[in-house]
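Possible race condition, two jobs.
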Amino acid sequence: MPPLSKDVVIVGSGPAGSAYARTIRREWPEARILMVEAGPQILPELGAHLDNIADPEERSALEVKAQGGDRNRRPSISKEEWEARRAGGFDASMLRRSGLFIANEADPSESLFAGFSAANVGGMGTKWSTGCPSPSMAERVPFIAADALEAALCEAEGLLGVHKDPRSGDQTAIKLRERLGAAFNEGRSPERRVRPMPMAVTPTAEGVTFHGTDVIIADMIGEPEDSFVIMAETVCRRIIHENGKATGVELCRAGTDESWVVNAATVVVACDALHTPQLLHASGIRPEALGRHINDHYIVSQIAEMHDEPPMKAMSWIPATDEFPFSVTIAPTSLATMPKPPELSGQPVGMGVFCPSDISAENRVLFDETRRDWRGLPAISIRWKQSAGDLERLDKAKATGLRIAEIIGRPAPGFATIVLPVGSSLHYQGTVRMGETDDGASVCDRNSRVWGFDNLYVAGNGVIPTMTATNPTLYTVALATFGAREIAHARRTV
């Protein structure tokens, strides 16, 4: 039997890979697309969001299936760990999430990196918060024309189904935004003022329906298999290439060694910021910058107490600007994993002050050829260390969180301001970063095409080359549209 042949093979089924598929389909209707996913299909609907499942036990059981080769439940937080979290200390329960990647474990107070990656059809698109804020000008790629990137961000909003104010009738949230605006809006352009958090949701009478990658690929789901198909529980072990041209991929069923080859005119690697460089490394594609510059924003977590009535339901956002480097999300919280202290009488409101960290080529992902992970690829480890600039910004972020808590009501009694380990946001970036020129400091060009290759592209948060504080999903999907259009326009004319 001859090898299967496709016009485009996309490795990874998360938001970036799905955006490639949808954009290519729109620009190149006859393209034959194969999407490869190492994890299982955990829901009947391809890539649907888990938070739409009302039963918490059912949802929890499905989340376990998305944890890759280590499918164990995360143990519940202990009393001692909860007390440590409340007091602003180190909470070891955060390191027990299955599938976790940990760096510098011996020094958790300063240089810990704790990341996680889902493995299921839809990738992290089945689990994400659905927040879709847009990056500030300082966070945007400087070598992509401003108008072109703005148009791509608008296109990404359409792909994700973004709603700018999904709980528009929440009067308590509106009043809070007015108070926050009085403190933070001066000098800001209208689009960077305090506002509702844009979210990839559909408002309903009961609340909202969360969007997963099912919304991105939409009616592609019903296409004939020869036109579009997602191969679940299928691992890509290697990109086959010769003389700067990818010719196919070597695939196998997860947990087996039996492999086969799919010929491909174009390959897009959209695993995530950890597994995309892993696959390139395993394939012998090892540019100098591969895996380097791993970067994430810290989350400074602050619980506030609100006495406004009725209780708030909506999420609010204080955008980052050139002068204000933090992206702040504010939303009701249930404190479901922690006992509610008796001195807390009002509504608990959670706050995340997202704080950028410095970019360094020495912060990197490493691959161990002597050990294999559950995919059969070189095992991943992470080297990361915070900088003096990180510490300075964190002090300012903590002060900002306390200031906002006073505007909300007051800092919740019994809860300290805490800094989550970098990586906890799951927004890590930079490991396959784009660059303006092939100078050894980047892996791909502005269209995410790997330097030195004609038809190999990378996708996901890993391509972002800048310091960021803002949730990167919208940004990542926007950048994916550049590469997808280049593929469609180049290949359909061949």
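Job #2 (started ~2 s after job #1):
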Amino acid sequence: MSQIVKNYYDDGAEQEWERLSDPYNQVEWMSTLRLMDRYLPDAGHICDIGSGPGRYAMELLQQGYRVTLFDLSANELNIARKNIEELGLQAEAYICEDARNLRVLGAEAYDGALVLGPLYHVLEEAERLEMVKQVHRILKPEGTAIFSYINSWGCLKAGVTEFSETFRDPERIYDYLQEQRFDELRGFTEAYFSVPHRALEEVKRGGFEVISCAGAESFLAGMRTEVTRLYREDRQVYENLVQAASEMSEAPQYREATEHFLIAARKSSI
């Protein structure tokens, strides 16, 4: 990742810790936890690549997994270490490194991997494919990984309420029907937006058998304002919807039109 991306996460480390506590982002959190529970191995060593401040790593450690955290941002890893140690837990390692350099990790060293973020920021296809191949290399036979991509189709839906002024140029609407690369976005940094079929192709080309895929925001995708209102005004309805959305995140009628597209995959022979 570029220095721009590194600076973004170093400067926003605390904000990234808080991000998944946001009422709307809780849908992504719950859906991802559900996929982890369903598709990661029941025990073993997990490499959390793009761990950020360690929210998912903490969940895994509390369940008895061994966990290595791997992230570009030293500030995020420091937050992760602090919060993990406050729980009386211990990670296997904290590795501050660019996810394009997974060669520093041993071959067939991990039972499972999370890749929930790095692929958002790798603009070049060859580099993304190499990253997926390196995830394949570090996994034990039959190891599983969960990959996350930003989905341009879902961002179009979200954009209606979150950045509608962009669409004063009608061509920008149609741009969201395909892959996109951004040097920088309002409120975000350098980014690559995929589309579901391209993301699936990339993971398969990297040597993986796709087990399942999901849309993290499920049927609530693009409804940030309304979901937040329900959180404030009718907590029971909010909780019911978030629970149902996480349970339906793999349903084909919802999964391809969400902001985050998740792929559960198993290592196969290339």
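The chain has one domain: 3-267.
Logs attached separately.
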